[in-house]
Design a protein that fits this description.
Elements (H helix, E strand, L loop, with lengths): L4 H7 L11 H7 L21 H32 L27 H14 L4 H20 L24 H12 L6 H26 L11 H10 L28
Helix pairs in contact: 3-4, 3-7, 4-5, 4-7
The chain binds heme C (HEC) (2 copies).
Length: about 260
């Protein structure tokens, strides 16, 4: 499937004189041109991928550019092979930023960050309906990640055997540190790198499985928040009396691990 440049512009709804001349569009339309109008509109054309092939590619790519690069690059790389443009124009290296919880900060797991970007690219758009579908798929990936003993992916020739942990969180910090505790390895160890390479393989594979289901019109969210966290949200999230907490995460990872909730 090829998308011509003229086709992208038409689809993007660039409606000013001379827009089809591509590079000229920006100067003719001035400030009213959305940035990136030269790129095709979202979602970019997804075709069914082989989850195992993508997982193996993600594992290898992890050793080149880390988790966020690996998950996004493996999926986009397979699409570049099968579809060609626009995937061949994607600057794969940009996603390196998300490694180790964004620049080593230990915030959002980079494998999830890459998965969320790709999901939006392939299922989202500026339309509300597509946005909420992409968000629904993303949350399902995040909940699966928090609730599953990972990594589930094992390469043909692992460098080390890896301990699996359920981390209950989407944070790199929590994920890596719980694994360090379980494995008794340091986070700068080769064992930890192998574990995260396998984690990238796992997340890439799962993401492709969900995108394949979405393509077939069969996606259904399978991982809910724990019932306990859902109860917390009834009193603290949007629509509740207090509405003081934006979170669709497992609250108990951080709250009331030592002290109880205040008596109500
Ligand atoms: C029935 C409603 C209700 C539920 C369910 C509930 N909360 Fe609360 N929460 C409150 C109210 C009301 C307060 C304020 C209490 C106060 O100030 O004495 C509060 C206070 C808090 C605080 C501040 C605590 C502090 O020490 O000052 C946190 C954090 C919190 N809740 C988190 C949670 C989490 C996490 C859950 C789920 C495990 C949860 N809440 C479930 C109503 C609720
Ligand atoms: C990754 C850790 C983390 C998770 C997960 C998390 N929180 Fe928090 N939450 C915090 C921190 C840190 C604060 C700020 C605490 C403070 O100021 O003392 C906070 C503050 C709050 C407060 C305000 C507390 C106050 O003192 O008034 C509420 C209410 C709250 N969280 C509810 C929730 C609920 C409900 C969930 C789950 C849906 C949740 N949190 C998930 C870390 C977390």
């Amino acid at each position: 499937m090829q998308v011509s440049r003229r086709g992208w512009l038409k689809n993007a709804g660039v409606a000013c004189f001379g827009a089809a001349s591509g590079g000229l569009a920006a100067s003719l339309c001035g400030a009213s041109t959305p940035s990136g109008a030269g790129a095709p509109p979202l979602p970019w054309p997804y075709v069914k991928l082989d989850p195992d092939a993508v997982a193996a590619a993600a594992y290898e790519m992890h050793y080149k550019g880390g988790c966020c690069f690996a998950v996004s690059g493996s999926i986009i790389g397979e699409l570049a092979k099968k579809v060609g443009a626009p995937f061949t124009t994607w600057p794969t290296a940009v996603m390196t930023y998300g490694g180790a919880g964004v620049a080593g900060v230990g915030s959002l797991c980079g494998a999830l960050n890459g998965a969320a970007m790709v999901t939006f690219l392939l299922a989202g758009s500026s339309e509300k309906e597509k946005q909420s579908k992409a968000s629904e798929i993303t949350r399902d990936i995040f909940n699966w990640y928090a609730q599953t003993a990972l990594p589930t992916f094992r390469p043909a020739q692992p460098k080390f055997e890896t301990v699996k942990v359920i981390c209950r969180s989407n944070l790199c910090h929590v994920s890596v540190t719980k694994w360090c505790k379980a494995s008794k390895c340091k986070f700068s160890s080769k064992e930890r790198e192998e574990r995260c390479a396998c984690l990238s393989g796992s997340v890439a594979k799962h993401t492709v499985e969900l995108l394949n289901a979405h393509l077939a019109g069969e996606f259904k969210a399978a991982y809910k928040l724990p019932a306990e966290a859902q109860k917390c949200r009834d009193c603290h999230d949007k629509g509740s009396a207090r509405e003081d907490s934006r979170a669709q995460m497992d609250c108990g990872v951080c709250h009331f691990t030592k002290t109880p909730h205040p008596q109500l």
